[in-house]
Amino acid sequence: MPVKDAVVERFREICAQRKIKWNELAVRAGVTPSSVYSMADERRRELSINLIKKLCDGLDMTLGEFFSTPMFDELEQEIK
Question: CATH: 3.30.70.330, 3.40.50.970, 1.10.260.40, 1.20.1250.20. Which one for 3-70?
Answer without folding.
Answer: 1.10.260.40
